[in-house]
Amino acid sequence: MKSLLATALLLTAPIASAQDWAASLRMDAKAMHDDIARNHPGPVDPENPGFAAKNDQALALALQRAGSTTTYAGYLYALIAYAATFDDGHLAAFVPEGVIQPPLVTRWPGFLTTFDTKDDQRVVTRAADAPVPLGARLIACDGKDAAALARDNVGGMGGSGRWNLHVSRVMRGKRLFTDVGNPWIKRPVRCTFDVDGTRRTVDLAWRPIDDKELDRRFAEAFRRKAEPIGMRTLSDGTVWIALSDFDGDPDHPAAKALEPLIAKVQAQRETILAAPRVVLDLRGNNGGDSGWSHRVAEALWGKHAVDAVNLAPTRVDWRASQDNMAQMQSYVRMWSAHADAPPENLAWGKSTVAGMQAAMAKGEPFYMEPGEAKRPTPKPPKTHARIFMVTDSGCASACLDAADLFLALGAIHVGQVTSADTAYMDIRRTMLPSGHMALVVPMKVYRGRQRGSNVPLVPRYVYQADLTDNAALERWIAGLR
């Protein structure tokens, strides 16, 4: 079973001309609602009886907002908020690459905050004339406490929601003190901070910040490392295997790097496992095709050990629809066109298409993918090397599948708490009618998955320092006992 978040075909869209943003919002919100109703597993999922009503309520709010929408920002953030309603990293409305959007002027008050490990919001980057220093803790703005302010202004306007997850707050908290003209939130005016134990109240002076400078400030507020895919040996004998991308497209650079890496691990398996430690580095990995992690695991632990692991859900149900079937057919064509594509991918794609066709012919909402009998996973195989797995807070989708598998095989989890996902997986992308935005909708649902819905993985050893500092991370792992 695959997670193809990063393998969906790239979209191209025409440049939409200036138009009535209220009309665009009505049109795209209705299309979004109908696509979700027609293709998402949720509306017909007996285990999620409130999903269809949530979709209806989200549409009603978007249509209500259309009544006062006059700007592109109003249109944009109404649809982004619609998607956030579902708290699902696999359901999103976004502006795809290649679509020229009307310019948005971004403003900031000269500083940005983000959440620390204790869930306090602290100033993490600032201009020289900012009214508060680095490290200042936000208490409240305009009578609203810091937590509620961030929840309302950022959490409800984030593409995947999930504000209850600490990792979501850490990743998106930096946007609290940015303003792009979103009419559905109230920009802070007067804020109180704790500065070294003393309260300081400041009036915010919002001013424009250009995109290049904003990107630099965002990078300072949330730093993430993605090592190039490959294997290296450290001076102390540690074998470091970087797995920063699981894109499933055979033409993608990740696939071109993973194929020789897996072959190298398989050929040098005995030498690798004789090392003092092995590190599987998942930093920077957003997901893709979970088949890659199985192949890495087979190369390192052996096929017999991987086959003994039973993390599969009790069943996988695919929403049977014409749109979903067309998406799977596109994958079959992609894999058929590449001689190097794993044959199991092609066989799986063809069987899924056939299963959807059969389900639709019977008028059934789901194609139920054949599963295997649930059996206990044996104890992990013993290896001379201690095998560590590093994750960052962006690890999601197929990265989480990899983490589940590596943990079951005995890897020691270190780094940061991961992201999380629901049981709805494998996405399909489509343009919304206006041509301004695209929609991502999952096609299948896991039944009985061991890891719960929107439940992150917590490392055995949490790394509190800068996870982008390779040298410090290497020393820290070498010192773990």
TrEMBL record:
Please indicate which superkingdom the organism of origin belongs to. Answer: Bacteria
The keyword Signal belongs to this UniProt entry's keyword annotation: yes
Question: Which Gene3D superfamilies would you find in this protein's record?
Answer: 2-enoyl-CoA Hydratase, Chain A, domain 1
Mind listing the UniProt keywords for this protein, alphabetically?
Answer: Signal
> Which stretch is the leader sequence?
1-18
Q: What is this protein called?
A: Tail specific protease domain-containing protein
